[in-house]
Amino acid sequence: MATGTLPGWLKPMNKFVRVLAWLNLPLGSIHVLTVPGRTSGKPRTTPISPMTFAGRRYLVAALSDGDWARNVRAAGRGVLARGHRKRSVELPEVTDPAQRRAVVAAFPTEVPTGIPFFQRLGMVKDGTPEEFAAIADDVAVFEIRT
Length: 146
What we know:
Blueprint: H1 10-22, E1 31-36, E2 43-48, E3 51-53, E4 56-61, H2 67-75, E5 77-82, E6 85-90, H3 97-110, H4 115-120, H5 129-134, E7 140-144
Antiparallel strand pairs: 1-2, 1-5, 3-4, 4-7, 5-6
């Protein structure tokens, strides 16, 4: 479970990253996910880093009750964009504990730039696959299906 706090710069940085992504500037693994808000229905966007594991693509939400994860859970779908290329996707949550653990254990290898975020939240110390596997029940994992 997360024990740290979100950094104050996160929301402004997310807006900045969304603009850079829209300008089609290279941002490593970052994509922009747009999903309907769970209460308003208005489009909500957030930068995310999809990962591939065992031939399938996934999203890992450090904060399983964070706004974007709750919106994805409610909608079950969204639009994944990289630059000006957009794709409608289905986003079912991975509920099988063994599958979720395997995906989360692969996260530090597949998305090493995401490790500091988990460290900032106090969820992992060194960012090893074993540490990530141990927090699998505390995070949300969504499969990306096109």
